[in-house]
Specification:
heterodimer; A: about 350 residues; alpha/beta; Rossmann fold; six-stranded mixed beta sheet; globular; B: about 210 residues; mainly alpha; Serine Threonine Protein Phosphatase 5, Tetratricopeptide repeat; about 70% helix
């Protein structure tokens, strides 16, 4: 294993120490327990957005903390969910009195830890909602699995929801907005190479020199198929069509019912894309992919969308939700209405995403 | 003879050792179908309990001791096993609040509360290839043995045997929960790491109960 690290056990701590030195006007960090939070927190009267997850996906989530996006991000060990004490302390630190929204990627550990954190925060008098992101179409069978994984739509949801909170939407409206972004988002990725978790010291999975994993998860989870390498155009078309031609997707998730005061099962449906939809198109690098290749992917994605009647209203191209040094890419399409586009365009100033300021 | 606070500390102490000894084994099982961290995470949590053990041994309320263990696991383990085992200890502790010593029947009360907590948190059913597959038959065996008049050590021995059978029963099964579920049919043929750690903990309870004559 060759990595620019000091000691595997210090990777997360030293990353946070670097961040606060690099962006003191945007973020502060807590090391015990670990989380990144807005330099001007708490923002009074604003719903506080908190996300988090295992490390190794940078700039997500810590890099998205700042004005117009997240109020705090809880960082777990590499590819391991953070714990409820981090999420609770982060909530106390950024609580501006208007409630807390936990944005949670759909992984068993993350879901359970954020549910426990929400219960703890409520017991301390805070209003809390948890919204899941589950957009990875590579997972076909939701009845026999833990459901679709949360991937690229997370970035879009954090940006749009963050802008809504900045406009002082109340907690219900912010939660509805986040759920709506997720209900309109779909993603799929592929890997050309594996990645190595620092503490493990060896690659998470093996891939032959001429093989790719189609439908890879962001922790190296297996996808739909392992196949021979193909051209960028062919692979882009496979990803894009898997997303665009994915049918309606229904599943049951746990959400907190404020009126009943308990967790309830809610059935959510993502409607399939159809000609005439306008979308935000996001081409994401997995960490080890050169920017030049992402543009080649975008070129083909644009063509496929046009052919299918989807209008790309906005785009985002770059490595924003990564898997350490993995070579590969993912595509996310989010159907966007006018309000979502306006919120997308709203100013944002974070270490990882900045415009309009 | 009822179990004392000292016996509970012995249980915890042995659990800490057993998890540490099996750290690599559990991680290896997890690397086949999960994300290769179960042993590492469990050991981090039980080592954190080890640090608190002297303090816990000075407490008189067994329920409070178990609740403190639960909170420690929740805040140190991470992943899915942190909330699941943490909830199990919290619920067991809540069921035993105020008890300064335990009768055999208390094992069942605590064990059933723990299992209920795990099912509530993880929403797993029997046969999903999870820790529930080891713990559900274990609790059934414990209940049956106690009803038939067995002492705690005998009943826990039956529970341990049932947990082991349940654990082995996860091998031919396809995972439906957690990260292993994404493997689909490729998860068949591997023993579930969570069911394995659950069996190890039940077996430890049986061994210590026998040693202390509970």
């Amino acid at each position: 294993m060759k990595k620019l690290i000091n000691k595997p056990e210090d990777v997360v701590k030293e990353e946070l120490e670097g961040m606060v030195l690099a962006y003191p006007s945007m973020v502060k960090v807590s090391l015990e327990p670990k989380f990144v939070y807005r330099a001007d927190a708490p923002v009074q009267g604003k719903v506080a957005l908190i996300s988090g997850g295992g490390s190794g996906h940078e700039p997500m989530h810590g890099g998205f903390v700042g004005k117009g996006m997240l109020d705090a991000a809880c960082t777990g060990e590499v590819f391991t969910s953070p714990t409820p004490d981090q999420m609770l302390e982060a909530a106390k630190k950024v609580n501006g009195g208007a409630g807390i929204l936990y944005i949670v990627k759909n992984y068993t550990g993350d879901v359970m830890n954020f549910e426990m954190a929400a219960d703890l925060a409520r017991s301390e008098g805070m209003k809390v909602q948890n919204i899941l992101i589950d957009d990875d179409v590579a997972v076909k069978d939701s009845l026999w699995t833990a459901g679709r994984r949360g991937v690229g739509t997370t970035v879009i949801a954090e940006k749009i929801t963050g802008a809504g909170a900045e406009k002082r939407y109340d907690l219900t409206k912010v939660a509805d907005l986040c759920r709506r972004v997720n209900a309109n988002g779909r993603s799929m990725g592929l890997a050309l190479t594996s990645c190595t978790v620092p503490a493990a010291g060896k690659p998470t999975f093996e891939l032959g020199d001429d093989e790719i994993e189609m439908g890879i998860g962001i922790h190296g989870e297996p996808g739909r198929t392992r196949m021979k390498m193909k051209s960028a155009d062919e692979l882009t078309e496979m990803l894009a069509l898997s997303i665009i031609e994915d049918g309606d997707y229904s599943r049951t998730v746990h959400e907190w019912d404020e009126k009943k005061g308990e967790w309830v099962d809610v059935t959510l449906v993502n409607k399939a894309f159809k000609a005439g939809d306008q979308v935000i198109a996001f081409v994401n690098g997995m960490g080890g992919t050169p920017a030049i290749e992402l543009q080649i992917i975008y070129r083909k994605l644009h063509e496929v969308c046009e052919k299918k009647g989807l209008k790309i209203a906005r785009n985002l191209i770059g490595s924003y939700i990564t898997s350490l040094e993995m070579q590969g890419a993912s595509i996310t399409l989010v159907r966007a209405d006018q309000e979502m586009l306006e919120l997308w365009d709203a100013p944002v100033k974070t270490p990882g995403l900045r415009w309009g300021i | 003879m009822p179990a004392s606070v000292g016996d509970v500390v012995r249980w915890l102490s042995k659990m800490i050792d057993v998890i540490h000894e099996n750290k690599e084994y559990l991680t290896e099982l997890d690397s086949a179908i999960g994300d290769a961290d179960h042993g590492i995470n469990m050991d981090r949590g039980f080592q954190a309990i080890a640090k608190k053990l002297p303090e816990l041994g000075n407490m008189t309320d067994i329920g409070a001791i178990l609740k403190a263990c639960g909170m420690t696991l929740i805040t140190t383990v991470g992943g899915a096993s942190g909330p699941l085992y943490g909830t199990a200890f919290l619920q067991a502790g809540t069921a035993l609040v105020g008890k300064q010593e335990l009768e055999p029947a208390d094992l069942l009360i605590a064990g059933e509360a723990a299992l209920k907590g795990i099912v509530m948190r993880g929403k797993a059913n029997l046969g999903d290839k999870t820790m529930v597959d080891a713990l559900t038959p274990a609790m059934a065996a414990l209940k049956e043995a106690l009803a038939a008049g067995a002492n705690a050590a005998e009943a826990l021995e039956k529970a341990s045997a049932a947990a082991e059978t349940g654990m082995k029963g996860t091998i031919p099964v396809q995972a439906r929960k957690g990260r292993a579920s994404y493997l689909g049919e490729r998860s068949i043929g591997h023993q579930d790491p969570g069911a394995t750690s659950s069996f190890l903990l039940v077996r430890t309870m049986a061994e210590i109960a026998d040693e202390v004559g509970f």
